[in-house]
Amino acid sequence: MSLMLYRSLLKRSLRIDAFRQRFSFSSASYTPPYLICGASKDSGTLVFTNLGNSEVVTSKKRVPAELLEASGTIGAAHGWVATLKDGVLSLHDDLNPNASDSNPKRVLLPPLVTLPDCQTEVVANVAMSSSSPEDDDCVVAVKFSGPQLSLCRPAHGPNWTNIRVTDHSFFTSRVIFSKRDHMFTLLASGGHHTGSWDLHKHKDNPKLLKLNFQNLPAFTKIEADLIDSSYITQHLVESSAGITYLVKWYVHSTVDDDTRDVKTKGLFVFRLDQEGNAFYTNDIGDVNIFISKNEPFCLSASSYHDLEPNTVFLVDSDEFGFINLSESANTSNVSASLSFKAPYLIPPQKLNHGLYSGN
Question: Which of 11, 22, 215, 336 has the least C-beta neighbours within 10 A?
Answer without folding.
Answer: 11
